[in-house]
Design brief:
Elements: E1 3-6, E2 9-12, E3 17-19, E4 22-26, E5 29-34, E6 43-46, E7 50-53, E8 55-60, H1 73-82, E9 85-90, H2 101-114, E10 118-123, H3 137-143, E11 147-148, H4 158-171, E12 175-177, H5 182-185, E13 190-191, H6 194-199, E14 203-204, H7 207-223, E15 227-229, H8 235-246, E16 251-255, H9 257-261, H10 266-270, H11 283-295, E17 300-301, H12 310-313, H13 316-319, H14 330-339, H15 346-361, E18 376-380, E19 385-386, E20 405-406, E21 409-415, E22 418-422
Helix pairs in contact: 2-3, 4-7, 7-8, 8-11
The structure holds zinc ion.
Length: 424
């Protein structure tokens, strides 16, 4: 017996199209797409709103193993489902660091047990993320790692990065870089700018990011590797990426909702809940990120979901850890800011949050097609809702978006044909 989903408007990002069609789901797979599908022997489920391919977030911190007080694979994937995501890439800066095939396999297996979303681990570039000795990329890839990254810190040595890119290139494995030159960034807490000056807090200049992206771009050009730049935040970094792409370098990049929507001024209202790495920067940087997203220099949106406890975030701007949660707010934030305002069409936004992420990381999904997994989310464009961190399924409540009125909330998420989230 199959399930027919009817009443919704399906989003086709590749065609930039919206179409009122029904879906027939059988055995977790989309068996048919069309109008007036035969009902015999099937359950019919009526939905309201837009039906999107399951969103894909290529940058999340599930904190598991080792920091389960911040998040677990279970709570992180529940949060993903609530945010409309059916696949997430988990960053390796856990404890221990995800630098062996056994650890990679364990994360995949435990995520499968819960079944809320597919977890695609990203393994470390260097052992223990120490920036020195490369991990075994081939073995990690065979275990299921979809990319390598030392996210949370930059690979300081150009020589180590060069060897990493050469090794990854031979395997066609993406290298996702957290670009941060410690000689420029070390000891900083927020953007080196107006607010840091007023507060007398040490700042992190945009150049800490731009310098390393420029270095890695030309290392990628020489090695032919697939370079992916995480959470781009600085105007000059967008410029450098635009030049690199024009020169034919195989580079892709992501931007977060917070870098698209907030500036350093968020620190006044939100203190440590606006402390994130890379930091929220100037209005000029923010506008450059928006422009980069619109013109395709920045390929996709990723949340950099980084849960911390309230106690950790209460330690003040200097002592609190970096990071914001994002899984449960990112779609409505961007729907409200860009689609409702007419800057992007809904299929264009979905393209940046599902289709491009799948393409860049070589994942299945990202569009709804016959024969593909029934990973989808239904969003309600008409009902406003306010961001309420106390209602998050994530253990993290650290968001500078609390209290915002947003549209486009996910109301139903299906993972492999199974309902994994329903908004009441
Ligand atoms: Zn990072």
């Amino acid at each position: 017996m199959g399930l027919i989903v009817t009443g919704g408007t399906v989003v086709f990002p590749k065609e930039n199209a919206l179409q009122q069609v029904e879906l027939l789901i059988e055995n977790g797979v989309i068996a048919a797409l069309g109008s007036d599908l035969p009902r015999t022997g099937h359950i019919v489920r009526e939905v309201n709103g837009y039906i999107l391919p399951g969103l894909i977030d290529v940058h999340v911190h599930l904190r598991d193993p080792g920091q389960e007080h911040k998040e677990t694979i279970e709570t992180g994937t529940m949060a993903a489902a609530a945010g409309g995501f059916t696949q997430v890439c988990a960053m390796p800066n856990t404890s221990p660091v995800l630098d062996t095939p056994a650890l990679v396999r364990d994360v995949i297996a435990r995520a499968k047990q819960y079944g809320y979303a597919t977890v695609r681990p990203i393994a470390a570039i260097t052992k223990g993320e120490q920036g020195e000795e490369l991990t075994d990329f081939r073995a990690l890839q065979q275990a299921g790692a979809v990319a390598v990254s030392d996210d949370g810190r930059g690979v300081q040595s150009a020589g180590v990065m060069y060897r990493a890119l050469r090794a990854a290139s031979a395997l066609n494995l993406p290298v996702a870089v957290h670009a941060e030159d410690n000689s420029l960034a070390h000891g900083g807490h927020i953007h080196a700018g107006r607010v840091a000056d007023k507060l007398g807090v040490q700042g992190i200049p945009g150049a800490a990011e731009t310098a390393m992206i420029a270095r890695d771009l030309w290392l990628a050009e020489e090695t032919g590797a697939r370079l992916h730049c995480c959470h781009v935040s600085a105007a000059a970094a967008v410029t450098v990426l635009r030049q690199g792409k024009a020169a034919g370098v195989r580079v892709t990049a992501e931007v977060t909702p917070h870098h698209l929507l907030l500036t350093e001024d968020a620190v006044w209202d939100w203190e440590a809940n606006a402390k994130v790495n890379p930091p929220l920067r100037s209005e000029r940087d923010r506008l450059a990120c928006v422009q980069g997203l619109l013109d395709g220099t920045l390929d996709l949106v990723a949340t950099d979901h980084a849960p911390h406890t309230a106690a950790e975030k209460a330690n003040g701007l200097s002592a609190a850890p970096f990071g914001l949660v994002g899984l449960e707010t990112s779609f409505p934030l961007l729907y409200t800011a860009f689609v409702k305002s007419g800057v992007l069409t809904l299929p264009e936004l979905v393209h940046r949050m599902a289709t491009r992420p799948a393409e860049v990381f070589g994942l299945p999904g990202g569009t709804l097609v016959v024969g593909g997994a029934a990973d989808l989310t239904v969003i309600d464009p008409d009902t406003a809702g306010v961001v309420d961190p106390t209602a998050f399924l994530s253990k993290g409540r650290n968001t500078p978006f609390a209290g915002r009125e947003l549209w486009g909330w996910p109301v139903l998420t299906m993972h492999k044909g199974r309902v994994v989230y329903e908004r009441d």
